[in-house]
Amino acid sequence: xxxxxxKNVCKRYAEGLPLTIHNANLxxxxxxxxxxxxxxxxxxxxxLRMVAGLEDISSGDLSIGGERVxxxxxxxxxxxxxxxxxxxxxxxxxxxxMGFGLKVFGANAADIDKKVREAAEILQLTHLLDRLPKALxxxxxxxxxxxRAIVKEPRVFLFDxxxxxxxxALRVQTRxxxxxxxxxxxxxxxxxxxxxxxxxxxxxxxxxxxxAGEDVQTKGSIAQVGSPLTLYHRPASLFVAEFxxxxxxxxxxxxxxxxxxxxxxxxxxxxxxxxxxxxxxxxAGASVSVGIRPEDMRLAAGPGANVLSGHIExxxxxxxxxxxxxxxxxxxxxxxxKVEGTTAQRTGETVHVQCPTESxxxxxxxxxxxxxxxxxxx
Length: 378
Ligand code: ADP
Ligand code: MG
Fold this sequence. Notes:
The protein has 378 residues and is an alpha+beta fold. The protein has 9 helices and 22 strands. Helices cover 24% and strands 31% of the residues.
């Protein structure tokens, strides 16, 4: 009933402008928690607003529960949206704010009261029902905004960066509440927009990563769709690889020497590297980008195969881990190495880091990934 389908959905805000959304093809299943991520301006809010009916669809089909909704009025879509700005009515109490949407639709007072009390219970707002928004904290206001969505019993919940205005501790707490809410309201689908990596990784059943810029016009808006761990372990392209994960994946310049179905022999600034990827579609001698995540690197005793050497330019001590930033001729950018605990290394020292065969990613000159051959969590 709440399955959402985008078929070749495009959005052009005005004649003469490039497409903001290009060929979005996507299915969000009943009860699925889908997170949209992507660079600022890539069209996350635009997509959400098209589902809500607040924005026209230029071409393609959007359906909810099997019904084409392109031309269906927002109020008839069974959709509730929660914004970054809570958009509460300042002169109404929490109770009135939460019940307002139902009242407008002509629900009877007893029904409204019952639904408001149930939602307040879920969100721990019961003791605040008679307060005005100005007497609430930011986190409480956002819970009221979520409560207002819950009482509508929508088949689809839309969240547009709902936690961005909250401080770090409240973000974590509200994130957990949203996860619990999703389990509790199992049948409604959720689309959640965020630029927060941790929110995306922890909340999503499915992540949709959107492209921005020129690539949208040639390749389409959607860069990859998959579970959080699929995007983390098997990014389809350099763009996805560098977007998912924090600190971001390091990219080294390499050349392919030879490849079989299981492993590839590479050279990275003169050093032999073996990668557990299938690069047989590429010619020997091809230039490749070799990816390795900071958390997959280990300090090594000295140079050797699969070892990268560099000077430490900067160190960040985070307590539970330290980040070493290395200057190395193998990369145009500083290479980040994450080591556990507080490192004994110092700025200016030369270090050697092991880049394990099973942890390497290889991308061709177009930025498309070669298949990683190890069995990986999905
Ligand atoms: P995101 O939410 O991913 O940051 P948006 O969906 O808000 O991105 O915007 C996507 C692009 O569409 C941006 O380049 C933005 O400037 C443009 N855009 C958004 N709304 C309008 C509008 N009403 N008219 C013209 N362009 C718009
Ligand atoms: Mg936005």
